[in-house]
């Protein structure tokens, strides 16, 4: 949260483009809001979205103008300080994880996800990472799947059969 | 008598008692571990607990909230890293105390004072909420609409450094909240012909994205911060200290409740204002402020926990969240089929007294867990970020999926996570977005009701604002916030009016 509170008196690289994109998106949304009911009446279903998107257009224009006035930050590069490689890599891994979680199932995809991320961020021996990933996955699984009864994608691992097998062993 | 019975619900059931204890315990750690925030934890918890019985879910989340607000002080004292925004003021004198080797004493004192603050907040909640709620029944639709706008404006103007950015974020949230079929006329809004969008974008997915994923992505910037170890010995504070600082603690607790009860202001602002109050009223501090004055530790800690009780007042009686955490909480109440608002106390008094009892219980657990288990604590807080952050991502994804057992919510969460990352990067506050999403339908519906009663005339609408004192006050407050933050005021009027005031 501290990043939110620090005062910003310089323009970071990419900030102008981001603010410009916000204007473009706001205008697009304003147009979409207009499509709902036009300017027919103040109590129509489109009135409130129109007001909200108009506010967005105005506010983003003000932000853009204010940003243009700021001096560019010195010694800050977009791909080193704003979007370092590690952030983009992790974003890509999460995206991949979201794609495969439904087909591969929670256990398998989460295990790979944890292993890759922890190895990337913590940089210890692979064996250590393996142990940490397995332990944390087991803890998460017990807490959420078994205690909280959260339904998780099963995928290709026959989870229910395994649990049924274990409970039958247990009762014997 | 009934009230007492409802109050004791969670005290007498072992299950609810256990869940409150668990929640408080978790909350203290969540609050203390830098990179984990209470908002993040409560948003993720909603998705896991929404199939539960409402009482169980509320016990756990109330515990996390109460514990989390307190827990932030721990790392503020030990590491000079506030675990939560409400602990920023705590670090100013707490860390110098720790550097002098008084970390244990500082933690003990801040625990006791937090609990005192917490109780003041709860008592005010119990006494004031019924009155506020009676008053709130007289509110017109336009008052609700303006209250919603006011809340977003306050959060927008206080949480960032630019009002325009705050307003943009709030309007974006309001817009996200309108996606889907219009509840009043069933017209499609922003659905682009996609049937999956008819139900709208799930606010929990937005919350997890904005507070969980984007925050964790930002943490990747500071992976290599070294952890400083502190030796902690005695933690139970001296009775003489508690007695000596009790008046200050009570004063700042009242500041905390009032600030917490205002829509849009929460524990962080309450703590800073309390710190300022302590600084102004303490004539001859034994140790100067900023160098380890106990007054500077007690004031913010009492205030930020008192603000919890305060924040519940508008949340339960008006349905207006005070800050991001209460916005998430209101989301949870809606999901469990409760309607926070003036009718809650009339229709479901058991919910109100149950919550009051719950907060009290959680506060007692803060005292118990706060004064014990410090060894375990220092172990857990040292958990390396390289392991912690992947786990946050994992929980965020599982949490988003668990809302509806649908992969689409993971996509929304991811999209808002990445967008939130860039918003934070360029100084846009994300709190107003969530507040906007939660308040969207309330503001929209009340706007339409208000304008319908004025038979669609904007002129009548504004004319009637000034016939009601409440509407006038709300309207003027909105204008005041707007103009006090624009350059017209800062460059033109302010220097004229406050010329004599010199900056120290």
What's this model, at a glance?
Chain B: Pfam families: TctA (PF01970). Chain A is mainly α. Chain A has eight helices and no strands.
Structural description of this entry:
Chain A: This is Tripartite tricarboxylate transporter TctB family protein. Chain A has helices at 2-5, 15-37, 47-69, 78-82, 85-104, 106-122, 126-147, 159-171. Chain A is an all-alpha fold. Mean pLDDT of chain A is 85; it is low at 1-7. Chain B is mostly helical and 504 residues long. Chain B has one domain. Chain B is built from 23 helices and two strands. The relative contact order of chain B is 0.17. At the A-B interface, α1, α2, α3, α5 and α6 of A face α9, β2, α10, α18 and α19 of B.
How much of the sequence lies in strands of chain A comes to under 5%
Query: How far apart lie the N and C ends of chain B?
Result: 55 Å
Globally, the shape of chain B reads: globular
Oligomer status: heterodimer
Rg of chain B, Å, rounded? 22 Å
Poorly predicted residue ranges of chain B? 500-504
Arithmetic mean of pLDDT of chain A: 85
User: Which spans of chain A of ≥5 residues are poorly predicted at pLDDT below 50?
Assistant: 1-7
- Number of helical segments of chain B? 23
Principal-axis shape of chain A equals flat
Order of strands, main sheet of chain B, comes to 1-2
- Terminal residue distance of chain A: 52 Å
The biggest beta sheet of chain A reads:
none
What is the element layout, followed by pairings?
The complex is a heterodimer of chains A (172) and B (504).
Chain A: H1 2-5, H2 15-37, H3 47-69, H4 78-82, H5 85-104, H6 106-122, H7 126-147, H8 159-171
Helix pairs in contact in A: 2-3, 5-6, 6-7
Chain B: H1 2-7, H2 9-12, H3 14-32, H4 38-49, H5 54-79, H6 88-99, H7 103-136, H8 141-159, H9 163-178, E1 180-181, E2 188-189, H10 203-219, H11 239-261, H12 267-281, H13 294-317, H14 324-335, H15 344-347, H16 349-370, H17 374-381, H18 385-404, H19 407-425, H20 431-453, H21 458-465, H22 469-484, H23 487-497
Antiparallel strand pairs in B: 1-2
Helix pairs in contact in B: 3-5, 3-16, 4-5, 4-10, 4-14, 4-18, 5-6, 5-7, 5-13, 5-14, 5-16, 6-7, 6-13, 7-11, 7-13, 7-16, 8-9, 8-20, 8-22, 9-20, 10-18, 10-19, 11-12, 11-13, 12-13, 14-20, 18-19
């Amino acid at each position: 949260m501290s990043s939110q509170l620090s005062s910003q008196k310089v323009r970071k690289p990419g900030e102008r483009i981001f603010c410009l994109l916000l204007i473009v998106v706001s205008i697009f949304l304003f147009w979409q809001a207009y499509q709902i009911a036009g300017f027919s009446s103040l109590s129509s279903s489109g009135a409130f979205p129109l007001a909200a998107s108009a506010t967005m257009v105005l506010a983003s224009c003000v932000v853009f103008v204010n940003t243009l006035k700021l001096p560019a930050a010195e010694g800050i590069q977009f791909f080193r300080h704003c979007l370092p490689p590690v952030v983009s890599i992790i974003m890509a891994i999460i995206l991949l994880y979201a794609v495969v979680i439904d087909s591969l199932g929670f256990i398998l995809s989460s295990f790979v996800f944890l292993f890759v991320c922890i190895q990337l961020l913590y940089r210890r021996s692979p064996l250590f990472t393996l142990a940490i990933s397995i332990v944390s996955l087991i803890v998460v699984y017990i807490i959420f799947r078994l205690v909280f009864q959260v339904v998780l994608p099963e995928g290709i691992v026959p989870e229910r059969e395994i649990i049924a097998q274990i409970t039958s062993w247990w009762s014997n | 008598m009934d009230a007492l019975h409802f109050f004791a619900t969670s005290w007498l059931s072992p299950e609810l008692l256990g869940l409150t204890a668990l929640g408080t315990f978790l909350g203290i750690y969540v609050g203390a571990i830098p990179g984990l925030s209470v908002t993040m934890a409560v948003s993720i918890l909603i998705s896991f607990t929404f199939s539960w019985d409402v009482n169980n879910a509320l016990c756990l989340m109330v515990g996390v909230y109460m514990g989390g607000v307190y827990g932030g002080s721990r790392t503020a004292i030990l590491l000079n890293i506030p675990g939560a925004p409400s602990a920023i003021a705590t670090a100013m004198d707490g860390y110098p105390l720790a550097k002098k080797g008084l970390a244990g004493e500082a933690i003990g004192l801040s625990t006791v004072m937090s609990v005192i603050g917490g109780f003041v907040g709860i008592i005010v909640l119990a006494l004031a909420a019924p009155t506020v709620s009676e008053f709130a029944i007289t509110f017109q639709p336009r008052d609700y609409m303006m209250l919603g706008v006011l809340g977003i404006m306050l959060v927008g103007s206080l949480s960032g450094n630019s009002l325009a950015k705050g307003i943009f974020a709030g309007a974006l949230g309001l817009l996200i909240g309108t996606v889907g079929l219009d509840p009043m006329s069933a017209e499609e809004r922003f659905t682009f012909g996609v049937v999956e969008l008819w139900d709208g974008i799930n606010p929990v997915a937005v919350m997890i994205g904005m507070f969980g994923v984007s925050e964790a992505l930002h943490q990747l910037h500071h992976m290599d911060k070294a952890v400083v170890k502190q030796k902690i010995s005695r933690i139970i504070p001296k009775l003489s200290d508690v007695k000596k600082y009790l008046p200050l603690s009570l004063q700042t607790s009242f500041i905390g409740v009032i600030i917490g009860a205002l829509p849009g202001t929460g524990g962080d602002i309450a703590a800073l204002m309390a710190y300022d109050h302590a600084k102004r009223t303490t004539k001859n501090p034994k140790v100067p402020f900023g160098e380890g004055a106990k007054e500077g530790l007690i004031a913010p800690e009492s205030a930020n926990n008192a603000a919890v009780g305060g924040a519940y007042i508008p949340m339960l009686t008006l349905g207006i969240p005070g800050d991001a955490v209460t916005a998430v909480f209101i989301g949870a109440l809606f999901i469990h089929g409760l309607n926070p608002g003036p009718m809650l106390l009339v229709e479901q008094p058991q919910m109100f007294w149950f919550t009051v009892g719950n907060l009290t219980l959680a506060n007692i657990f803060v005292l118990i867990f706060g004064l014990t288990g410090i060894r375990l604590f220092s172990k857990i807080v040292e958990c390396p970020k390289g392991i912690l952050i992947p786990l946050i991502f994992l929980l965020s994804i599982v949490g988003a999926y668990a809302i509806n057992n649908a992969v689409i919510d993971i996509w929304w969460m991811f999209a808002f996570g990445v967008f939130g990352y860039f918003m934070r990067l360029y100084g846009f506050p994300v709190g107003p977005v969530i507040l906007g999403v939660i308040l969207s339908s309330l503001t929209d519906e009340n706007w339409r009701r208000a304008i319908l009663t004025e038979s669609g005339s904007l002129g009548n609408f504004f004319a009637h604002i000034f016939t009601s004192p409440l509407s006038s006050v709300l309207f003027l407050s909105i204008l005041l916030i707007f103009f006090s933050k624009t350059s017209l005021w800062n460059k033109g009027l302010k220097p004229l009016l406050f010329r004599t005031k010199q900056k120290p």
